[in-house]
Write a structure and sequence with these properties.
- This is Secreted protein.
- The N and C termini lie far apart (about 65 Å).
- The chain is mostly helical.
- It is built from 4 helices and no strands.
């Protein structure tokens, strides 16, 4: 019964990692992250068109008035809208 110990060894061995794990992206709902999103939005061609422009304005206003979570959500929507205009 040579096969049984070999099978147990193979099943108990850790699985080798074949590639790097994806890097976790940590985002915080903070004024700094709001500014980062604004910087990402600025160079996009559709940033000055509606609805991206008004979403960005709302997002910045919310971030500045102490509501970064809502502001970040609006800024992300503005980025998506601006990318659709490309």
């Amino acid at each position: 019964m040579v096969r049984l110990p070999f099978l147990v060894f193979v099943l108990a061995a850790p699985v080798p990692v074949t590639g790097a794990e994806p890097v976790a992206r940590v985002t915080t709902d903070s004024p700094d992250y709001c500014r980062e999103l604004v910087q990402r939005l600025a160079p996009l061609p559709g940033a000055d068109k509606e609805p991206a422009r008004s979403l960005a304005e709302d997002g910045m206003r919310l971030c500045e008035s102490g509501h970064p979570r809502s502001g970040v959500a609006r800024l992300r929507r503005a980025i998506r809208a601006a990318r659709l205009e490309e």
